Amino acid sequence: MALLNFKKREQPGAPPPVNAEVEALLEGYSIEVMPRTAEKVEDFRDLLPDGTRVYIAHIEGTPIEDMVATARRLALAGYPVMPHFPARIIKDRATLADWIARYQGEAGVDQALCLAGGVSAPHGEFDSSMQMLETGEFDRAGFKRLHVAGHPEGNRDIDPDGGWLNVDAALRWKQEFSMRTDAEMAIATQFAFEAGPIIKWADSLRDAGITLPIHIGIAGPAKLQTLIKFAIACGVGPSLKVLQKRAMDVTKLLLPYEPTEVLTELAAHKAAHRDFNVTNVHFFPLGGIKTNAAWAIEHGGAAGKPANAS
């Protein structure tokens, strides 16, 4: 019966059959870039399907001019762009309004990922994405889609004791905020490596009345050492043991990690539970955007072809 989950490729010389459940989960996937990584890509249309949402990560110290230029380039290539707005590196409301105006005026951006940001001390008046959202600047600019951050395994920057009190309270606030805004909202999460904790977390949100769609963060293919480094730096919790266990297996140590197992389990769960609130996959291309994009296409993302193959 398991064979019914697979579809045969139509193209000549095609790779192995695609898991239909994984292909369904990958529909509408998104991917993240930074200006310095985007510079290495000659033409995104050689890598990404039409309509792929591309997030632009704003790392502390990156000039807004570089962010906007990257957004403009992607928009001109036909991709919907979602830049990060990290509250703690935005000096004040005037700066926020300026960034929004630049993105909108120069790149036609009308969506944003609003998050606190990875710095411990605020650079100005914003300490959280909630304070930034409350200014109403995104609404005044007519932004159509606002995503907020989620943490399937908690976040010790928000809950130093390793609990869930503050992160859960923040998501309840964002759920309430979604009811009083015209923008489409969703939760975009930190990456995780194990399906079980993701499913448990997503179900707990639904049970708590938090119904925002979840775009689950998934690390793309990469060297194991690279993933462990990023996982520790980003505070990934319980599912880090998946990588550590793999690192102890000398037969796997030198092989690149691929997210096949976690996505297969999530896709099977979604196929069996239609109310599962993980609706999309968001890739962190930690092993490189070209490698990640090729993996997504091979596994059926957007019917398995980039825009230039249309």
Determine the CATH topology.
Answer: TIM Barrel
Q: On the 0-100 scale, what is the average pLDDT?
A: 88
Give the SSE order as H and E letters.
EEHEHEHEHEHHEHEHEHHHEH
Number of domains: 1
Ends apart, CA distance between termini? 33 Å
Structural class per helix/strand content?
A: alpha/beta
Rg, alpha carbons: 19 Å
Helix content: 25-40%
| Major beta-sheet overview | 8 strands, parallel, barrel
Provide the CATH architecture.
Alpha-Beta Barrel
- CATH C-level category: Alpha Beta
Number of helices: 12
Poorly predicted parts: none
- The shape is globular
Strand order of the largest sheet: 3-4-5-6-7-8-9-10
Number of strands: 10
Which percent range describes the beta-strand content?
15-25%
Task: Describe this structure as you would to a colleague.
With 310 residues, the chain is of the alpha/beta class. It has a single domain, classed as TIM Barrel (Alpha-Beta Barrel). Helices cover 38% and strands 16% of the residues. It is globular, with a radius of gyration of 19 Å. The model has no long low-confidence stretch (mean pLDDT 88).
Explain the layout of strands and helices:
Layout: E1 6-7, E2 18-19, H1 20-26, E3 30-33, H2 35-38, E4 53-56, H3 64-76, E5 81-86, H4 93-107, E6 111-115, H5 129-134, H6 137-140, E7 145-150, H7 165-179, E8 184-191, H8 195-207, E9 214-219, H9 224-233, H10 240-247, H11 260-272, E10 278-284, H12 289-298
Parallel strand pairs: 3-4, 3-10, 4-5, 5-6, 6-7, 7-8, 8-9, 9-10
Antiparallel strand pairs: 1-2
Helix pairs in contact: 1-11, 3-4, 9-10
Protein name: Methylenetetrahydrofolate reductase
GO molecular function: oxidoreductase activity
Keywords: Oxidoreductase
